[in-house]
């Protein structure tokens, strides 16, 4: 069968998933979805599993959209079948994360779900899931979401099941997903380790009474304008019946996720007074099983709201008959679901601000901020999107045009609103700003020196290796005039990666009038006299630089900005994810250099 010029081959083999009892067919395609990869002329070891479902009214919500809970059940079923195919035995879900919903399905459309084992570790395996929707009348297929599940084999005894590795990776896409699976696993472990550290940082911000408006962090809100999170609490109970179980007698975990989504949606709806859309799931984490006859209690509450999103936390507790009588629950699952309102402008808050009235409410409020930061870092670190060339050709004939654009781009970047605090100390503050695929960082430094002196030193890029450990060397390539200079910078490798080099145009401007800042703007350019250097990966920066504001005769505020690109990301990724304080350390070194150099000059 051909759809949109692509030939799809289907092999119908009826198999029953031990996870849910659903019958699904194995699928091998001549050209599989990008998430899963394919092999032409060979039978790939990690076989695709495909489910196709026509969306019926029973699968939809009151608006005719496919219920997110129903979709989660289908996704868990198909992922389990792929895991069982690889393991050769019954498998159970440990977690499902990285779920990003791009589209939704409507009644009458067709949902296609594909899954494949990306990589098997010692006792666990990652299963990639790709969901698309098609309107049969338009024959246009759109991506709904991508997700990753972690499964383990269900042992017959007390010993864990050792899994065979995924072998015979035929396509470049399969090899990429195999490598990224290891990176995703590493990030999960890192995030668990750094969560408490980041939470402590935000507790420090909270105790400092910072506010998010005007580049500061909100922690104390006006109780008259903010809604208490206690108002959004939802508690719902379900009795696990035989139709809710798999053949082991354990509750089907896709069904548990569907019930959790329902409770979370009610909590979000209570806050905003309408029905928001589920946009992503931080993670479904299963801590233990439940069985037929158990009472499952679902507790949902809004943890925090942001400019255009809201996080709802859901906790699942299980009781058997004896535990129900003794009121001794088992915590079997937790998840954090992110909602948005459709067609809401990004600069207009979609949800009312919330506040908390208990110590546990404060913990949830701050934890939501930490998770948002981790999601942001994870998204950009794992992004595989190729960037278009960012460098522009350098020539003295277009010097005025390039210099103007360089300074203007930095000014626009500095003027962006809704910077969120990442860390704040007495003299150094780090902020981040995200817009869809755009990520920017800002570092503010209070320096005890004159603005002119700081400008003079920062505008000479050959001095930067003296205080920035990410600069191995910096050589002047061409000086067009007193305001425009081209430099070649070499940077060390990060985390075992390659050494990188950049070719920057530096444009510097002094204030036109009182109150204006000094400007040192940077961007990548292409210069024929500086070809790529062996052993270094030529990288690019789109917009970076310093704005230096005078605060007095011997004090100034130095603000560094950088619009993060794939070439810059390795040097800030640790900070974004909370693994390191390299930006704070570099800022402190810069402050010390600017102040020490002044002392050296005076004496």
Automatic annotation (TrEMBL):
Source organism phylogeny: Eukaryota, Metazoa, Chordata, Craniata, Vertebrata
Keywords: Cytoplasm, Fatty acid metabolism, Hydrolase, Lipid metabolism, Repeat, Serine esterase
Localization terms from the record: Cytoplasm
Matches recorded under InterPro entries: Cytosol_ACT (IPR040170), HOTDOG_ACOT (IPR033120), HotDog_dom_sf (IPR029069), START-like_dom_sf (IPR023393), START_lipid-bd_dom (IPR002913), Thioestr_dom (IPR006683)
An example Gene Ontology biological process: acetyl-CoA metabolic process
Catalysed reaction equations from the record: butanoyl-CoA + H2O = butanoate + CoA + H(+)
Protein name: Acetyl-coenzyme A thioesterase-like
PROSITE patterns, alphabetized: HOTDOG_ACOT, START
Annotated pathway: Lipid metabolism; fatty acid metabolism
GO molecular function: acetyl-CoA hydrolase activity; carboxylic ester hydrolase activity; lipid binding
Domain called HotDog ACOT-type: residue spans: 45-157, 230-345
Keyword Metal-binding attributed: no
GO cellular component, as recorded: cytosol
START domain sequence ranges: 416-603
């Amino acid at each position: 069968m051909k759809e949109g010029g692509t030939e799809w081959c289907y092999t119908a083999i009826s198999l029953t998933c031990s996870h849910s009892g659903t019958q699904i067919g194995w699928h091998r395609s001549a050209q599989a979805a990008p998430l899963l990869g394919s092999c032409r002329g060979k039978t790939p070891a990690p076989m695709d599993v495909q489910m196709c479902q026509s969306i019926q009214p029973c699968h939809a919500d009151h608006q005719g959209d496919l219920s997110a809970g129903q979709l989660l059940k289908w996704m868990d079923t198909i992922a389990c079948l792929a895991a069982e195919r690889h393991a050769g035995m019954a498998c159970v879900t440990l977690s499902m994360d990285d779920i990003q919903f791009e589209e939704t399905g409507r009644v009458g459309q067709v949902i296609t779900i594909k899954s494949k084992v990306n990589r098997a570790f010692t006792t666990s395996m990652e299963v990639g899931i790709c969901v698309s929707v098609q309107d049969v009348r338009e024959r246009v297929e759109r991506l709904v979401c991508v997700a990753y599940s972690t499964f383990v084999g269900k042992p017959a005894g007390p010993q864990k099941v050792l899994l065979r590795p995924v072998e015979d990776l035929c396509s470049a896409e399969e090899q990429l997903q195999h490598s990224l699976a290891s990176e995703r696993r590493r990030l999960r472990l890192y995030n668990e380790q750094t969560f408490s550290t980041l939470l402590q940082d935000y507790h420090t911000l909270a105790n400092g009474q910072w506010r998010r408006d005007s580049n500061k962090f909100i922690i104390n809100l006006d109780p008259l304008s903010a809604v208490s999170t206690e108002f959004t609490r939802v508690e719902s109970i379900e009795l696990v019946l035989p139709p809710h179980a798999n053949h082991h007698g354990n509750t089907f975990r896709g069904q548990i996720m569907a019930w959790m989504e329902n409770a979370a949606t009610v909590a979000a709806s209570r806050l905003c007074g309408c029905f928001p859309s589920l946009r992503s799931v931080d993670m479904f984490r299963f801590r233990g099983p439940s069985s037929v006859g158990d009472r499952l209690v679902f507790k949902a509450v809004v943890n925090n709201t942001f400019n255009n999103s809201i996080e709802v936390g859901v906790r699942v507790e299980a009781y058997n008959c004896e535990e129900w009588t003794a009121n001794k629950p088992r915590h079997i699952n937790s998840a954090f679901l992110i909602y948005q309102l459709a067609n809401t402008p990004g600069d207009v808050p979609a949800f009312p601000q919330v506040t908390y009235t208990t110590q546990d409410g404060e913990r949830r409020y701050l934890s939501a901020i930490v998770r948002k930061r981790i999601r942001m870092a994870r998204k950009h670190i794992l992004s595989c999107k190729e960037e278009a060339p960012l460098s522009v050709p350098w020539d003295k004939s277009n010097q005025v045009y390039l210099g103007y654009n360089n300074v203007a781009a930095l000014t626009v970047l500095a003027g962006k609103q809704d910077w969120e605090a990442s860390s704040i100390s007495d003299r150094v503050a780090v902020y981040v700003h995200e817009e869809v695929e755009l990520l920017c960082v800002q570092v503010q430094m209070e320096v005890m020196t004159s603005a002119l002196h700081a400008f003079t030193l920062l505008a000479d890029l050959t001095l930067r290796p003296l205080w920035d450990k990410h600069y191995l060397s910096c050589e002047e390539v061409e000086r067009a005039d007193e305001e425009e200079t081209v430099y070649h910078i070499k940077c060390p490798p990060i985390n075992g990666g390659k050494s990188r080099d950049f070719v920057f145009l530096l444009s510097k401007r002094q204030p036109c009038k009182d109150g204006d800042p000094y400007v040192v703007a940077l961007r990548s350019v292409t210069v024929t006299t500086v070809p790529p250097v062996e052993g270094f990966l030529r990288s690019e920066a789109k917009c970076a630089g310093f704005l230096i504001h005078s605060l007095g005769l011997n004090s100034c505020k130095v603000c560094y900005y950088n619009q993060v690109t794939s070439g810059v990301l390795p040097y800030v990724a640790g900070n974004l994810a909370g693994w390191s304080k390299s930006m704070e350390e570099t800022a402190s070194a810069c402050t010390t250099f600017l102040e020490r150099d002044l002392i050296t000059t005076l004496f």
